[in-house]
Amino acid sequence: MSSVDTSSSTPGLVPDPPRGSGCRPLRKDAERNRQRILAAARAVFAERGLAATLDDVARHACLGVGTVYRRFSDKDDLVEALFEDGIRRLVGLADEALADPDAWSGLVAFLEGASRQMADDRGLREAVMSPHHGHSGIAVARGELEPRLEALVARAQASGQLRPDVSATDFVVLLKALQVAADIGCAVTGDYWTRHLGLVLDGLRSTPAGSTPLRCAPLSAGQLHEALAGRTHRA
């Protein structure tokens, strides 16, 4: 007699069917478990970031970890399922910004919207910034976001509203800095980072009086990737 998995014996939940059942659609109870796992992962990763484990997700979902592994082979598989859509929302936000007839207004809208989404979700923030996650869907979505950010920067500079000595890679670093502000102020108010967004925007805007000269060159795309990879590895 085959052994029975008791890891998902929470009332109201039905154990998943065994793997190897072909490509048939998930049973309703299995799909309910999958959605329960995704909801739990969204909450856990939003609070703790991608350092959270599948055991953490299983506990939050009130499921056995075996049930989680039947739906997702490992944590990367779960991260892909959860955050590819989140990054594509940022891509959509960039497209909306590019459609704004005012280049500066579009750039500001993207910077604020992206900062808000990531301030509310630590896991999304790390998925966007970390090259160690997303070998497929997330990596493709990130690759779609990068040229859009470059276009937003180039358009605002061409309009004369954005200082000419900044690069798209500077915006990636600024987004990360705003998330540090969000972490510092989250115990007091969820919008603390918006104060620093105002300071950042004043520093980015081109002014008739001129801007403080930047003392070093921006990072290249390759240098930024290496810097983020090294920082993530040390963390």
From TrEMBL:
Residues 1-28 are annotated as: Disordered. Gene3D superfamilies: Tetracycline Repressor, domain 2. Residues 31-90 form the HTH tetR-type domain. GO terms for molecular function: DNA-binding transcription factor activity; transcription cis-regulatory region binding. Transmembrane segments: none annotated. It holds the Pfam family TetR_C_43. Keywords: DNA-binding, Transcription, Transcription regulation. Residues 53-72 bind DNA. The keyword Transcription regulation applies. Residues 1-11 have a biased composition (Polar residues). This is TetR family transcriptional regulator. The lineage of its organism: Bacteria, Bacillati, Actinomycetota, Actinomycetes, Kineosporiales.
